[in-house]
Amino acid sequence: MDVSLSSAADLKSGDCQIMEIIQYNCELELSQTENPVIRCFPLSRMFRICSGRPGVELTRSLTVNEDGVVELPTNIK
């Protein structure tokens, strides 16, 4: 069974979608002079979802340009 990643052509054909989820990493900051504070930071995770295939996380493979546009590498297969 071939479970290779789909290509950029699959994204253009409409069989696949890039989807994003936002997770939060939270930490409890303790201070001797103030009440404890919970600080949370967003973590964006990107996935490729193709019909009939398992979802694949692309977060480490993608680049986000200065305008916030996600750039899909041409070598994803």
UniProtKB/TrEMBL annotation:
The record, for Pfam families, names:
Mitochondr_Som1
Cellular compartments per GO CC: mitochondrial inner membrane peptidase complex
What name does this protein carry?
A: Uncharacterized protein
Q: Which organism is it from?
A: Lentinula raphanica
